[in-house]
């Protein structure tokens, strides 16, 4: 099993840690930032804004996938955070859910990895961790869709699925692994997931993962022989001290991007509600909306599973 060094060994030389911190090492002592955790703050230190996908220097086949997926103009977080990822910087991006973070790290990763047919045999080049199986599977689908014209293979490595399916996928070869901490750690421990060729490690919804108690598993994965020059990127809706602490341990001079709430309204989006006074009228109202509006994609929330199945 992959284990971190014991705390006594990590804390034996505070001076050595300070030297490591200034050099930006991926391996840092857990206790060294605890005292200063309350003083940590998050502010943007990367100001480049690119307002068009065409101006990002993306691979032609990736650009085809971006437009085919329905993206037209980069969102606020995409305008700011795709480029530091593409440029190879460790990157921390804070923006609310639903602002385009999945597209941001997917485009950045797909631009960075080697998609040549022979490259897949060397092992996965990117790992994305997500807090839930559903989010990991959704991100894997986006990654696969955006990378369709590149011939990219993205595998969802999540709990609740057959281990043999994961083993078969890794045996065939994958470019990108999108998974949950428990199953990913299990595959690494079994020797199925070879991490020696990883170029990029992405933590998606980092605050949720830490809230759900995945901190120890994340640290375990970082201790499993990941390449020292691996790029680390982190996306989160909030930036609690425990998340900033993690970035201090495993990231080197990261570019920090903060998209404020007042920047999140997308041009062309209109919001409205319909006051439906009786439960029996809801379905007819929904059907009227579909007949009146041009709707290509939608998310419908219900308060019971039965209604979801019925719709």
Automatic annotation (TrEMBL):
Keywords: ATP-binding, Helicase, Hydrolase, Nucleotide-binding, RNA-binding. It catalyses: ATP + H2O = ADP + phosphate + H(+). A motif (Q motif) lies at residues 51-79. Residues 82-257 form the Helicase ATP-binding domain. It comes from the Eukaryota. Residues 51-79 form the DEAD-box RNA helicase Q domain. Coiled coil: none annotated. InterPro entries: DEAD/DEAH_box_helicase_dom, Helicase_ATP-bd, P-loop_NTPase, RNA_helicase_DEAD_Q_motif. Its EC number is 3.6.4.13. It holds the Pfam family DEAD. One of its GO terms (molecular function) is ATP binding. This is RNA helicase. It comes from Cafeteria roenbergensis (Marine flagellate).
């Amino acid at each position: 099993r992959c284990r971190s060094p014991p705390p006594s060994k990590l804390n034996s030389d505070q001076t050595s840690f300070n030297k490591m911190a200034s050099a930006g090492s991926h391996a840092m002592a857990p206790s060294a930032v605890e005292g200063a955790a309350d003083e940590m703050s998050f502010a943007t230190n990367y100001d480049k804004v690119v307002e068009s996908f065409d101006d990002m220097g993306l691979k032609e086949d990736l650009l085809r996938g971006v437009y085919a997926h329905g993206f037209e103009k980069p969102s606020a977080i995409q305008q700011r955070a795709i480029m530091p990822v593409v440029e190879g910087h460790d990157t921390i991006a804070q923006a609310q859910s639903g602002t385009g973070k999945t597209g941001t790290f997917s485009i950045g990763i797909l631009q960075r990895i080697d998609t040549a047919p022979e490259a897949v045999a060397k092992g996965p080049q990117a790992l994305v961790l997500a807090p839930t199986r559903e989010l990991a599977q959704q991100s894997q689908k986006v990654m696969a869709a955006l990378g369709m014209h590149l011939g990219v293979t993205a595998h969802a490595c999540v709990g609740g699925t057959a281990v043999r399916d994961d083993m078969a996928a890794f045996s065939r070869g994958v470019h990108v692994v999108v998974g949950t901490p428990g199953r990913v750690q299990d595959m690494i421990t079994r020797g199925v997931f070879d991490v020696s060729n990883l170029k990029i490690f992405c933590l998606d919804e980092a605050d949720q993962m830490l809230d759900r108690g995945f901190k120890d598993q994340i640290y375990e994965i970082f201790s499993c022989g990941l390449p020292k020059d691996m790029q680390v990127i982190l996306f989160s809706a909030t930036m609690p001290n425990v998340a900033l602490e993690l970035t201090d341990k495993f990231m080197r001079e990261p570019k920090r991007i903060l998209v404020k709430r007042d920047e999140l309204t997308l041009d062309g989006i209109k919001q409205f509600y319909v006051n439906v006074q009786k439960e029996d009228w809801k379905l007819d109202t929904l059907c009227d909306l579909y007949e009146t509006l041009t709707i290509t994609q939608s998310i419908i929330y219900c308060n019971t599973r039965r209604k979801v199945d019925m719709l």
